[in-house]
Request: fold
Amino acid sequence: MVVANNTNLILIPARMQATRLPGKPMKDIAGEPMIVHVWRRACEADCGPVVVATDDQSIADAIYKVGGEAVLTRSDHPSGSDRICEALHKYDPEKRFNTIINLQGDLPVLDPEVVRQCAALLENEDVDISTLAAEIVDESEKTNPNVVKMVGTEIEQHHHRALYFTRATAPHGDGPHYHHIGIYGYKRASLEAFIKLPPSKLELREKLEQLRALEAGMRIDVAIVKTHPLGVDTQEDLDKARALLQSS
Reply:
C-alpha cells in the first residue's frame, strides 16, 4: 500500500531521564548515539519528515549534526504523547500534516517497513489510532506482565481492530496471543483529543495509556508484523543492539 508522504509526520520523543538506563538516547552504538540510529531507521521508512522531540539540547545537537530536525519541548510532560503534541504544534502550526507517527527513541534496529505498515492503517478514515503487534512465540511471554498483550478482532489477514490491551494472559483458550509494540500512528485530531482526556480507570489499573483511547470510544487498528523489534531498556539490550549494528 502506498503511503502519501505529504500528510505524514514522524515524531520521535527522546529524553535523558530513563530509569533503567539513564542517558540512553546518547549511548554510543557503532560510533553514533542511539537516537541517531533511530532517526536513520525512521528516514528509511520514507513516510514523511522525521523530527526528534526532546527536552535535552545534547540530543537535539546530535540530530542537527547529521542533518536532521529536532524540536525542543518542555521537560515536565507526563507522557510521550504530550511531548509529541507540543512538538507537532511547534513544528507544524500551519497544520500541513494530517497523520503523526509516534516512534519510540529506543528502537535502533527497527525495520523501517513496520513504520510504513503503521502509517498505512491511517488511510482508513474511520481509524483514529494505529499501532503494531507480533504473535508471541515464547511461551513464557504469555504470562509475563511486562509483555503487553493486544486482544483484537481480525478484519483481514495481518490486520486487527483492537478491543483491549492487557498485562494478563488474554484471550483465554486456544489460539495465538499478540505482543503489543509501542509504536503509534494518530490522526492529528485524534492526538489532540486524546491528550485532553483525563486518565481512565482501566488505564490506571493496567498502567497502559492506550486504554484511555479505547475507553473514550476511539478506534485503534493494529498491523500484525513478523517480530517484535528490540527495544533498548537495559544494558543487556544495549549490548545486543551494539552487536547487531556492528555486524551489519
